[in-house]
Amino acid sequence: MNHPHEEQLLLLAYDELPAADAAGLEAHLATCAVCRDDLARLERARVALDWAAPQPRRSARWIVAALAAAAAVAAILLTGRPSSDEPPSGWFEQRPWSATAGYIAGGQPLIAIDAQLTRLEQERSYARP
Amino acid sequence: MPPLLRNVAPDQLLAEHAPALRNFLGARCRDADLTAELMQELAARLVTAAPRLYANGNARGYLFRIATSVWHDHLRRDLVRRRGALVLARDERAARPPAADERLLARELHEAVRRAVAGLPQAQREVVDLRHRAGLKFREIAERLGRPLGTVLTQMRAALTAIGAAVEDYR
Predict the structure, then answer these.
(1) Co-location of B148 and B72 in the same domain
(2) Where does a domain end: B99, B125, B151?
(3) Hey, what's the torsion of the CAs at B14, B16, B17, B23, to 10 degrees?
(4) Are B111 and B146 members of one domain?
(5) Domain boundary among B81, B99, B117
(6) Mutate which of A47, A59, A94 to disrupt the B interface (most B C-beta within 10 Å)?
(7) For residue range A66-89, what is the model confidence (pLDDT) as tens digits?
(8) Is 0.85 exceeded by the ipTM?
(9) Which of B30, B139, B167 sits opposite A45 (nearest CB)?
(10) Which chain B residues have any C-beta within 8 angstroms of a chain A C-beta?
(11) What is the CATH number of the domain that holds B163?
């Protein structure tokens, strides 16, 4: 029995194999326990990674990016230097999420940034003659 | 935007592709009862998803995406169950009362994956990052990193083997 190249199983596990190749590989899988086990291992690891690093939906990426950028700019404006709460260098750290504050960049809730901005605004207006 | 598939009932669509979907799921789980269970879940999701079905000439592809999602959800539940079995065995050995609930197990699993990823060689970690966090295709990753596609795939496979070993640890 000719087993598929292991790269093909990887591409199948990630839905990146062209449809025609995938159909042939599916037919092989129906009769080959070795390749099924191999695919199952790859898929379990993929699912575990997907789970540990939830991928933002492509359509919502710009929203996340915009929020993160806004938070970073706000942090720099407020502190005069880049935030010391750098995003974790470790992999797949869980980012806190607040239903009210939305996505949080660098671990600092947007709602807290907003509160600081409001306070600064008030201080500025009090300082005016 | 393509027009909605208003005239195609979900059960009709499912009936048309059921044999192929059953083969797809059956080839992965090799369990007739589980395959039937997953097919039921797929049917339930299809009913929910029906309003989003588009006549883009690839209803079959859409169905298989749902099937893949159903299968991945099953794998995810399976990972947590296995974690539960490990923790239970560990607690029994230590004569402790079993304390792990599903949420805790999920968190421990998350942590195990995170540690495994952190321990990968940098070249592999870059590939995992671009695939799982940036959502790039392997071909795009190869272009971005200036590596041959085959190298990227080999690195990803090695990374998955390491992650898999960390995940399988708690069997």
Answers:
(1) no
(2) B99
(3) 110
(4) yes
(5) B99
(6) A47
(7) 666 666 666 655 555 544 444 334
(8) no
(9) B167
(10) 23-24, 26-28, 30, 61, 65, 68, 71-72, 75-76, 78-79, 106, 109-110, 113-114, 117-118, 125, 128-129, 131-133, 135, 137-139, 150, 153-154, 156-157, 160-161, 163-164, 167-168
(11) 1.10.10.10
